[in-house]
Amino acid sequence: MQKLHKFVSGFILQVVDWFFPLFSRFMPKQTYRYAACGGFNTILDIGLFFIAYNYILNKTPVQLYAVTVSPHIASFILSFLITFPTGFYLSRYVVFQQTSVTKRTQLARYFLVVFGCILLNYIFLKIFVDSFGWYPTPSKMLTTVFVVLFSYFSQKNFTFRAKQLQ
Hints:
By secondary structure, the protein is mainly alpha-helical. The protein has one domain (2-159). The protein has 6 helices and 2 strands, in the order αααββααα. Strand 1 and strand 2 (67-69) form a beta hairpin. Helix 3 runs antiparallel to helix 6 (136-159). The longest helix is centred in the C-terminal third of the chain and has 29 residues, at 103-131. The protein starts with a helix and ends in a 7-residue tail after the last helix.
């Protein structure tokens, strides 16, 4: 399993870094890696959301015992179940490799930040879809802009922060 992990993380790093020269004039390598990995995970998230909303749930609310979950919130939950572990893996092994925080602490902090992202997703989707009456997929895309900004600064300065040299 360790060999597979080394191969996968090394391959992803090679692919991501291969494109870095195109962006090196505009941003540091860590910011570029975050944008590349985050961009991939975001596209995966929006794609899974679209598929879940339109094809798996067929735009139908989900009944869970006494609670009815709207299809756009249920679709968000389904896409989250895949993009949470994918995002952590990419953040830990591709973006923020140099860190002074243990893996267990990183995972706990990552979950806290992601929980904040979940709240932001829920709030913005409720506002955009339920209050403003916008279509769910474009609403998810706009929500993602706000959530990505919050996530990047939180992950960099809280979850995966590197110890400052004195």
